[in-house]
């Protein structure tokens, strides 16, 4: 079993745990995310994009939808999603684009 797969699995598991404990123990959730980030750095293993979006880039806390973050779709200029951390106020913007690798009709 390759080493990086174990790191990946541990990262995923930590995010699952963070999600489960967030409501009762937001400080634990933050700690789990912290551990996941350490594993990622130590193993040079990227945190999957969908999980990375659950980390606030401002305070590095766990973002739980409907609890401590606000997700909105904006059409200004380019369509994008904004994720606002309600703990520190940091706003992450994710542009919405058409998939580049989608097969082109001819
Ligand atoms: Zn934050």
Q: What characteristics describe this protein?
A:
alpha+beta; 3 strands; 3 helices; binds zinc ion; 106 residues
Secondary structure elements and their pairing?
Layout lengths: L2 H19 L4 H18 L5 H4 L16 E6 L5 E6 L5 E5 L11
Antiparallel strand pairs: 1-2, 2-3
Zinc ion binds next to loops.
Walkthrough of the structure:
It contains three helices and three strands; from the N terminus they run αααβββ. The chain has 106 residues and is of the alpha+beta class. It has a three-stranded antiparallel sheet with strand order 1-2-3, with no helix packed on it. Helix 1 runs antiparallel to helix 2. It is globular and about 40 Å long. It starts with a helix and ends in an 11-residue tail after the last strand. The mean pLDDT is 90. Zinc ion binds next to loops.
Q: Name the overall outline.
A: globular
Q: What ions, cofactors and ligands are bound?
A: zinc ion
The average pLDDT is 90
Strand content: 15-25%
How does the major sheet shape up? Answer: 3 strands, antiparallel
Count helical runs. 3
Structural class call reads alpha+beta
Compressed to H and E, one letter per element, the order equals HHHEEE
Q: What is the number of E strands?
A: 3
Strand order of the largest sheet: 1-2-3
- Roughly how many Å is the radius of gyration? 16 Å
Relative helix content:
25-40%
Distance between the termini: 43 Å
**Unreliable segments (pLDDT under 50, ≥5 consecutive)?**
none
Quick recap:
Helices cover 39% and strands 16% of the residues.
């Amino acid at each position: 079993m390759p080493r990086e797969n174990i790191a990946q699995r541990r990262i995923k598991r930590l995010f699952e745990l963070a999600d489960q404990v967030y409501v009762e123990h937001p400080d634990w959730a933050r700690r789990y995310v912290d551990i996941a980030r350490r594993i990622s750095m130590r193993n040079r293993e990227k945190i999957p994009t969908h999980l990375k979006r659950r980390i606030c880039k401002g305070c590095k806390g766990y973002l739980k939808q409907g609890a401590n973050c606000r997700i909105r779709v904006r059409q200004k200029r380019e369509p994008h999603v904004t994720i606002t951390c309600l703990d520190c106020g940091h706003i992450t913007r994710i542009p919405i684009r058409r998939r580049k690798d989608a097969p082109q009709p001819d």
